[in-house]
Amino acid sequence: MERKTDVIYRPMVLDDIPQVQLVERKCFTTPWSRSVFLSELMRNDNAFYVVAQLDERIIGYAGVWIILDEGHITNIAVDPSYQRGGVGQRLMEEITVYAVSRGVTKMTLEVRVSNLGAQALYKKMGYVSFGVRKRYYQDNNEDAFIMWRELTNDAERTNIRDRDEL
After folding, report:
1. C-alpha atoms less than 13 angstroms from C-alpha of 120 in its C-beta half-sphere
2. Residue 65's CB: how many other CB atoms inside 10 A?
3. For residue 75, what pLDDT is reported?
């Protein structure tokens, strides 16, 4: 496997959508359509998406909506062959750095109650569960944990920016 330092993290562009959809289909039972991604990239001024690219291949992506001082993580997906190698964490860091630069002081996301791997990553990154959305996922009516991360500590915000410069 390639070293994670070979992965490039950059903003998503329209030409990335077909490869992002391949990752979506590998990761989700109800993947987003091309039109949803087009809308997010072209019409949603509150949205920001980043991709993880290895050579010419997109191996992951993440997105966030910036709403006032909150960042809502919309999606994060890493091709299963590259999971547990740090790509997901780096994608989360990338959107957090962007969110902080836009004045965000707290981040939120929903995660399936059965997705223990994702929950472990989010907890490692400082997210805490604050509730449950009953029957949140349409494919099987699974509940979702609502997780939050406060970014109000100036030292923590500086550390986020410093990690980006590494």
Report:
1. 6
2. 17
3. 94
Active site residue 110: yes
Is residue 35's pLDDT more than 80? yes
CA angle 92, 94, 95 (to 5 degrees): 70
Residue 102 above 70 pLDDT?
yes
Put simply, whether the predicted model's pTM sits higher than 0.90 gets the answer: no
Judged against a pLDDT cut of 90, whether residue 149 lies above it is answered with: yes
Q: What is the CATH number of the domain that holds 29?
A: 3.40.630.30
Catalytic residue among 70, 110, 136, 142: 110
Range of the domain at 79: 4-165
Question: Domain count of the chain?
Answer: 1
The tally of CA atoms less than 13 A away on the side-chain side of residue 166 is: 12
The answer to whether the beta carbons of residues 70 and 104 sit under 8 Å apart is yes
What's the rounded Cα separation, in Å, for the pair 110 and 103? 21
Mean pLDDT over each residue of the chain, to the nearest integer: 88
Active-site residue, from 49, 61, 122, 127: 122
